[in-house]
Amino acid sequence: MTADAKVSKQQALNDFNAVYPILRDEMLAEVKKYNMPENAYNWFKESMDYNVPGGKLNRGLSVVDTLRILKGSSITEDDLFKARILGWAVEWLQAFFLVADDLMDQSVTRRGQPCWFRREGINLVAINDSFLLESCIYIMLKKHFKAESYYVDLLELFHEVSFQTELGQLLDLITAPEDDVDLNRFSPAKHQFIVIFKTAYYSFYLPVAMAMMMAGVKDEAAYNQAREILLPLGEYFQVQDDYLDCYGDPAFIGKIGTDIQDNKCSWLINQALVKVTPEQRKVLDEHYGKRNAESEAKVKEIYKELDLESVYRVYEDQSHKHISSLIEQVDESKGVKRQVFYEFMNKIYKRTK
């Protein structure tokens, strides 16, 4: 049965959310098969309910949105259901990364609630919980896609993107440990590697590549084109995040920026290090990564002296022009449509939260 190719944002979100309990219950049925004791079964259920839903769901929804564009009026209800499953697989992957990342960073809150490992009685059990969340992805794929010609391609894509994300996480952890501040470790090139590998591959390329597989795109050149656009888009998105962490309104963006106090290898500090005088560098060395408001204010004062807000505006305009030119060069005969990338660009260009 063909489906409506266009729906409201709220309806798309409702339809997507409706699939989560179906998949969660399928995962619980797998656990039941092994006769797990009830307390372990309930623990697993709570881990999924606490960590998988609750985010903005942009990654998961991107699978569905992209398939709608690629298939147009020929899209069926079964296509949409399968796309939502793949979308939730990305959200399970995100949950796996975030549970582990919060433990590594010793974070306090996530999505406005205590990090999973911070809850009473959990602590290091969260490591195993993150492994279980990742394993769910492959159970889902086997159950719903084993008969599809692109099944192995999906498996390889998830394995590859997980590896790439973990490489980005590794470089992030060893470049900017919170308890050992050394700005000599930072560089714009390291920042670029971290954001592309830690964020862009799984947040931007993965959802689109899966939708392309579902739409029957076979030409490797189409995937290369998509990657060449989506990785710079993902980099631009993360630079925006770094900028908003310092300059965004906490009441509007929903969080208080902590990158300076947390010794993050952010875009702003890397831009500052390229431009500073020796005197300004001394201030940054003394105060960056210190967990107090006075040091943070001194770092922000250097940012102001260097006019990093204007540097960011120039970067934003240049990125928009560069990515737009890449989109214009897309060869639609290969199976991918420019509209896919314009949709991403329109969602994030000049965003303020």
UniProtKB/TrEMBL annotation:
<dbReference type="Pfam" id="PF00348">
    <property type="entry name" value="polyprenyl_synt"/>
</dbReference>
<comment type="pathway">
    <text>Isoprenoid biosynthesis; geranyl diphosphate biosynthesis; geranyl diphosphate from dimethylallyl diphosphate and isopentenyl diphosphate: step 1/1.</text>
</comment>
<keyword id="KW-0460">Magnesium</keyword>
<keyword id="KW-0808">Transferase</keyword>
<dbReference type="InterPro" id="IPR039702">
    <property type="entry name" value="FPS1-like"/>
</dbReference>
<dbReference type="InterPro" id="IPR008949">
    <property type="entry name" value="Isoprenoid_synthase_dom_sf"/>
</dbReference>
<dbReference type="GO" id="GO:0005737">
    <property type="term" value="C:cytoplasm"/>
</dbReference>
<comment type="similarity">
    <text>Belongs to the FPP/GGPP synthase family.</text>
</comment>
<dbReference type="GO" id="GO:0046872">
    <property type="term" value="F:metal ion binding"/>
</dbReference>
<protein>
    <recommendedName>
        <fullName>Farnesyl pyrophosphate synthase</fullName>
    </recommendedName>
</protein>
<dbReference type="GO" id="GO:0045337">
    <property type="term" value="P:farnesyl diphosphate biosynthetic process"/>
</dbReference>
<comment type="pathway">
    <text>Isoprenoid biosynthesis; farnesyl diphosphate biosynthesis; farnesyl diphosphate from geranyl diphosphate and isopentenyl diphosphate: step 1/1.</text>
</comment>
<dbReference type="InterPro" id="IPR033749">
    <property type="entry name" value="Polyprenyl_synt_CS"/>
</dbReference>
<keyword id="KW-0444">Lipid biosynthesis</keyword>
<dbReference type="InterPro" id="IPR000092">
    <property type="entry name" value="Polyprenyl_synt"/>
</dbReference>
<keyword id="KW-0443">Lipid metabolism</keyword>
<keyword id="KW-0479">Metal-binding</keyword>
<dbReference type="GO" id="GO:0004337">
    <property type="term" value="F:(2E,6E)-farnesyl diphosphate synthase activity"/>
</dbReference>
<dbReference type="GO" id="GO:0004161">
    <property type="term" value="F:dimethylallyltranstransferase activity"/>
</dbReference>
